[in-house]
Design goal:
The chain is of the alpha/beta class. The chain contains 11 helices and 15 strands.
């Protein structure tokens, strides 16, 4: 009997937090979550981090948020994913730079019992987003913007601004991740299907959202096409670069329309001044918050998250930039 009592006591002791006498309960443990983004340069990612950190504090979790210096550095991001898996965190959030390059790593995390939830951009997993979930060997799901729908909205807005006629240049920020691909495809396919009066020039790319590269592309297009009516840039860096090209060409009166993506201080100032017509904003803080929420609830409560959490998007311009429903999704 005494031996049995000692065994029980020993077990109880092991279940106490050292020095506090408090039982270690799953709900009380501070969860460690690795969040690997596509970059850190653009303010968008800082807003995602802010949303993740805020949600983590509410749920007794700690987030380590990292990303490569540029959104072209796929290999560097894969190294970060490898390092995150080696740390054996409670969970991993991952925004895929490449399409399929990360699949073996995601499967490795799964084999080690580390749940993964993707955010902003999903890797191209077999069967797509519909096949994600607890039975997937890659990820539980993804929290992101429907980029095809967002690109389609940008096309509708551009066509309306131009009266369904004129030349438009599309400048993409990535050919190697699904978000970049979808933002271009949504715009281009919508224009071809619904706005046949619009002439689309050949799509060009400022990889990684390089503002200087985007500036060069747009500057050259303005010289080669004196009748260029509009430019669509698929991320913050591209939109800023296009705006710089407009300034250099003294096109500050809005005569050539510019629709961008996301927000950031410079882009918002350009919209307020009339240099830029408008932009599509996502909910970056919502993306970060929803990712953390999904992972914590799964680890703590085994609550299976949706395989796709649509975090929404909005079009904004000078007329509505200050409205609460828009301003709440903007960041500097």
């Amino acid at each position: 009997m005494k031996k049995g009592l000692l065994s029980v006591a020993a077990v109880a002791a092991l279940a106490l937090v050292a020095g506090t006498g408090t039982p270690v309960v799953a709900a009380q443990k501070t969860l460690k979550i690795e969040l690997i983004s596509k970059g850190e340069t653009h303010q968008f990612w800082q807003a995602v981090k802010k949303g993740a950190d805020t949600q983590a504090k509410k749920m007794n979790a700690k987030v380590h948020f990292i990303g490569p210096a540029a959104e072209t550095m796929i290999d560097k991001q894969l190294e970060m994913l490898d390092a995150a898996i080696a740390l054996k965190p409670d969970a991993i959030g991952y925004a895929a730079l490449g399409t399929t390059q990360s699949l073996t790593r995601l499967a490795k995390a799964n084999s080690k019992g580390i749940p993964v939830y993707m955010f902003d951009t999903a890797a191209s997993t077999p069967g797509g987003v519909k096949k994600l979930g607890p039975k997937s060997k890659y990820a539980l799901g993804v929290a992101y913007t429907n980029s095809i729908a967002a690109g389609s909205l940008a096309a509708d807005k551009m066509a309306a601004l131009l009266g369904d006629k004129g030349k438009v240049l599309v400048v993409g920020h990535a050919q190697t991740n699904q978000t970049g691909i979808d933002r271009v495809a949504g715009f281009v396919n919508r224009m071809k299907a619904k706005h046949s009066g619009i002439t689309l020039l050949a799509t060009q790319y400022a990889e990684g959202g390089d503002a200087l590269k985007a500036q060069d592309i747009v500057a050259a297009a303005l010289v080669a096409n004196k009748d260029l009516a509009g430019v669509y840039g698929t991320n913050e860096g591209v939109a800023i670069g296009a705006g710089q090209a407009f300034k250099a060409a003294s096109l500050t009166d809005g005569s050539v329309k510019l629709i961008g993506f996301d927000s950031g201080k410079q882009q918002m100032e350009n919209i307020k001044s009339g240099l830029q017509t408008g932009a599509i904003t996502q909910s970056p803080m919502g993306i970060g918050a929803k990712t953390v929420e999904a992972l914590v609830n799964y680890v703590r409560n085994k609550t299976v998250p949706k395989n796709f959490i649509d975090t929404g998007f909005y079009y904004y311009d000078k007329s509505n930039i200050a409205k609460p429903e828009i301003a709440g999704n903007l960041y500097e």
